Every structure is written in structure tokens, then in C-alpha cells.
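During the second half of the funding period, the structural biology subgroup turned its attention to how the target accommodates small molecules. The most pressing case was magnesium ion, which had performed well in the primary screen but for which no bound structure existed. We therefore specified the complex as follows and requested a full 3D prediction, including the ligand pose.
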Amino acid sequence: MALFGKKEETKLPENLPVHVGFIMDGNGRWAKKRGLPRSLGHVEGGKNFKRIMQYCKDIGIKYASFYVFSTENWKRPQAEIDGILAIMREYLDEVQLHLGDGVRAIFLGDKSAYPEDIRKRMEKLEADTAHHSQLTVLLACNYGGRDEIAHAAREIAALVKNGELDPDSITEQTIADHLYTAGIPDVDLVIRPSGELRLSNYLIWQCAYAEYYFTDVLWPDFGTDELDKALIDYAGRGRRFGGV
Ligand code: IPE
Ligand code: IPE
Ligand code: MG
């Protein structure tokens, strides 16, 4: 079956990653290169998010996570933050319509930092899509890996305090169960465009054994052909998880 006319050519490998994490970086530089305001880079980045999400669904990826906004990104100028919030409002209203059936959306991060209307839209999207299972899209908004682990520690400490949990029984699984990603498989492949070779606090627990793919292409230009390249590269790697 044809996915998109011109993409019939690419033969994707059989061993696709179950969970792909996208660090959507480089929007600002994409705009700067064109003499445009950074906010327009975020608009283009948003369009590419939709393209890549749709493609993940078409090729059968089960979990796709996207780094939308970090706990550190609040340091940016208020005008830029407001621009990103405006894009979020727009997408929260239309994303479900755009994707159709089969896609479940889950937010990773502390929603309480967002204005009430956005928080409500996030909660509604999660509730409306909770029964879908073809593709799960994880949206990291006000997300930081260290913040997530601290949040899990607070929840676990409260259980110990109430006498519901014995500290000696705490395992790696206990911690995983208290992360925002509880029940979601670990990341298999992290993709970071834009030339930066770092994780920037993205899913630091869940990426412990992830494979990494870096490219200089900026996020708004990271199209489906670029994703194909990353998937082919990933398929050729030997993952050992500490074994032989
Ligand atoms: C990523 O693009 C989007 C967010 C962090 C919200 P950037 O805005 O970081 O783009 P660059 O890195 O400045 O090019
Ligand atoms: C990471 O990008 C966060 C997102 C893509 C949302 P940044 O642009 O914030 O990361 P640094 O500052 O280059 O590490
Ligand atoms: Mg950046």
C-alpha cells in the first residue's frame, strides 16, 4: 500500500524501534538563517511535529515522544514563551482531528505550570484518546528528567511515610512506576537534530540504554526522509544491554 507517493521507494528495516524520542531542537536557528523571528521557527517546528507524528503512525511506530518544552526553557524571553503557548493552544485543539483514530496522547511533565485553559485542553486530550493504542504520542511539556525523578521520589517517600511501602522493597521498577512514563517502554532511539550532542535533561532515566542519532539538520527540516535514515542507522546497530 502506498503511504505517500514519493516514499514508496524507501524500504524500511523490519526491526523498527518501539519507542522513538524526538528532541525537537533548532527552530530558533532555522528562523535566524532566514532572517525571521524565532517564533516563526517554532511555527515551522510545529508543522514538522505533525508530519513526523503522522509518519510514525503510518510506518507502525508504537511510541513516539516529543520534547516540546523543558523545565529549563522558562528562562527564555517571555515573548518567545508566549509564542510557544499560543502554538500549543492551536495544536491542542486540532491535533486529535488531524490524527484521526488510533492515537493516544499523554503529557509528560508538571501540567500545573500552564495556564488553566491549556491544562484543561491537555487533560481533555488525554481523556478523549485514552482508549487508543495504535500509536502513543508522549508530549514532554514543562518536562525535565531530574524534575521527574524528584517528583517520583516525593511520591515514594509519601508512601513510606504512610506505612504503605517498606523502603527495603524499593526497586528500579518502583521508581519507573512513579515516573510520568509509568507503563511506557523505555526509549530505544533518541533523535536530536540541530547539531547539539546532548540530552538536555530529556528522559534521562528512560534513555539509560537508548541508541542516539544526531544530525546537523534543524528540526523544521527534519522530514520523513531524515527519519528513514535514522531508522536504517538504528537497525544496523548491535544492542547488548550489558550482555555479550
Ligand atoms: C527547540 O528549538 C524548541 C524549544 C526549545 C521550545 P530552539 O528554540 O531551542 O532552537 P535553537 O536551538 O535556538 O535553534
Ligand atoms: C531542548 O532544547 C529542549 C527542547 C527541544 C524542548 P534546548 O534548546 O532547550 O536545549 P539546550 O539549551 O541547547 O541544551
Ligand atoms: Mg535549542
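Two results from this model are relevant to the next phase. Residues 38-59 form the longest helix (22 residues). Helices lie at 27-33, 38-59, 78-99, 116-129, 145-161, 172-177, 224-235.
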